[in-house]
Amino acid sequence: MEQEDETVEQEDETMEREDGMNATRAVGSAGAANSEAPHTSVTAVTTVTTAGGDGSGPVGMVDAASIVGPSFLRDSDGLTIVTITASHDAEIARIIRANLVSFHLDIPGTAYFDPELDHLSAFYGSRADRRYFVVTDHSGRPLGGAGLAEVAGTTDTAELQKLYLSDDAKGHRMGYALIERIEAFASAHGYRQLYVETHHRMAAANHIYLRSGFHRLAGPLAGSVHGGAMDRFYMKDVMMS
């Protein structure tokens, strides 16, 4: 079991380095550990992000035997997950655009041209059931993040959105940590499903979504904003809190 877990962690880190991506992209939500992840429990003490009342909080040590899923953080290195503020907007927009450029996805129909991209704190702060989480280093510098917002036309489905990390955050499995935060927030706000869109070029993203328990859909949900430019679509059931 320990060898299997170590191999999985090495594979995940290799994928992150090779694709330089928006790890959701490492542990892409965030929040308390997700009890629905389809992997076996890790039996060591592992560093994972702790959930505050609003889903924000510093990384901390927990008994990984209580986590169903792969080990989420190799070490903390002072990384923290916080709720986005206006002070984060410019750098998060830059990180997202840089990631999309690296995959030649700076094209109409992707997040690169989203009208809210330069003001994510306002967009995600406009409703109580939306949230964007930011990974920061010890100095408070934003290193990436991931968000959640409602899917139009549904009452129980949210979309995991804009999970991108800078190079400084990669290799710490923060994509997985962000996904945990998103799942915990979704559960607390009555969502029963998480939907996400990505592209086949983002191999690490696809790998992490599958590792996190998402299953692939044949196509985008009705009303998808980015469904014309993205070509990989996933869904996951959320455990109600």
From TrEMBL:
SUPFAM superfamilies: Acyl-CoA N-acyltransferases (Nat). GO terms for molecular function: N-acetyltransferase activity. The keyword DNA repair does not apply. The keyword Disulfide bond does not apply. It comes from the Bacteria. Keywords: Transferase. Residues 1-16 have a biased composition (Acidic residues). Residues 1-21 are annotated as: Disordered. Residues 79-240 form the N-acetyltransferase domain. InterPro entries: Acyl_CoA_acyltransferase, GNAT_dom, NAT_camello-type. This is GNAT family acetyltransferase. It comes from Bifidobacterium minimum.
